[in-house]
What does this fold into?
Amino acid sequence: MGRLIHFEIHVDDMERAKKFYGDVFGWTFEDWSDYAGMPYFGAVTGDASELGINGALMQRQSPPPEPGQAMNGYACTMGVEDYDAIEAKIMSSGGTVALPKHALPGMAWQGYYMDTEGNVFGIHQPDENAK
It folds into this structure.
């Protein structure tokens, strides 16, 4: 055991966060609030036959991170097929650039963004020709 099986993204505005992740990545959500005793929506991130995990959006329980604050936790990275198209969706959905697109030489394109809730996440497009 020890394999990552679930993630939680802390949010201030649940509907805004659901719209952001739904519009950008096509995630769908299941209301698990009664089970959790707080606003908590399970995030279905893809088909069960695909590699990856599901998670949840949960109501933030403390002040959000300050802009420019060092990372204090985990950054989730989503695999994408078309980096530039997903970046455009992120930006048009209210996200901002945290660390611009850069090559992981011989492996992929990587970059980091802030969602509408102030959380940092990454996107990763495999490309052995990246340089």
